[in-house]
Automatic annotation (TrEMBL):
The species this protein was found in: Nelumbo nucifera
Protein name: Probable tocopherol O-methyltransferase, chloroplastic
Family: Belongs to the class I-like SAM-binding methyltransferase superfamily. gTMT family.
Pfam families: Methyltransf_11
The keyword Cytoplasm is assigned to this record: no
Keywords: Methyltransferase, S-adenosyl-L-methionine, Transferase
The encoding gene: LOC104590913
Domain Methyltransferase type residue range list: 12-110
């Protein structure tokens, strides 16, 4: 997409959080970017951040469901779903919506947490399943699937140029650094004051690290293109 001919003019950021990716993409490509998220609090923060950076005319945010997006068919040149798919209860519906709002020739990018790929005769080991269930429950995630499962869903929609890359080894050092940063006095006291759910989340991050260390958990990027 570095080729100016291929630069997207319209982007949707599905599960946009507090808007950092939307703002980055709008600035990088000079495109109009629409972010959606279920959290009104995060959407409010995203709007404030875009305004503070002088991009309110380029970036807009909306409280909306990724599984039922409020957009017409074939609207966006780039469909971006960064680390939100693991929160979606229906992966088939999610992928279907990503494909629906993508314009002909558009690129779809999904970055997400998955369990490791399995052979046709293989299942997750009991200890892997137990660990992944703990991660899911502690971090309020939805049922796991593999990168291969996503590829099958994309293929079923006739999407093209499907590519998968495992980013786990690049991501693995990040989470221990996050945990260490939270144990400073400056941050641990506010964390404790916010109650059990935040403390539980901290344990969840440690379980996440264990998942990567044991190769049960993967951080993958999946890219594909909608046919012209």
């Amino acid at each position: 997409m570095e080729d100016s001919v291929k630069k997207p003019k319209s982007i949707v950021d599905v599960g946009c959080g507090s808007g950092a990716d939307s703002i980055y993409l709008a600035r990088k490509y000079g495109a109009q970017c629409q972010g959606i998220n279920l959290s009104p609090v995060q959407i409010q923060r995203a709007q404030a951040l875009a305004a503070a950076q002088g991009l309110a005319d380029k970036v807009s945010f909306l409280v909306a469901d990724a599984l039922q997006q409020p957009f017409p068919d074939e609207q966006f040149d780039l469909v971006w779903c960064m680390e939100s798919a693991q929160h979606m209860p229906d992966k088939k519906k999610l992928v279907s919506e990503l494909a629906r709002v993508a314009a002909p020739g558009a690129t779809i990018i999904i970055v997400t947490w998955c369990h490791r790929d399995l052979s046709s005769s293989e299942d997750l080991k009991p200890e892997e399943k137990k660990l992944l269930d703990k991660i899911r429950d502690t971090l309020h995630l939805q049922p796991w699937c593999s990168a291969a499962d996503y590829v099958k869903l994309l293929q079923s929609l006739s999407l093209q140029d499907i590519k998968v890359a495992d980013w786990s080894r690049y991501v693995t050092p990040f989470w221990p650094a996050v945990i260490r940063s939270l144990f400073s006095w400056k941050r641990i006291i506010p964390l404790l004051r916010r109650g059990w759910q935040n403390i539980k989340g901290l344990f969840g991050l440690r379980l996440l690290c264990e998942g990567y260390e044991k190769d049960a958990l993967k951080n993958v990027i999946i890219t594909c293109r909608k046919p012209q």
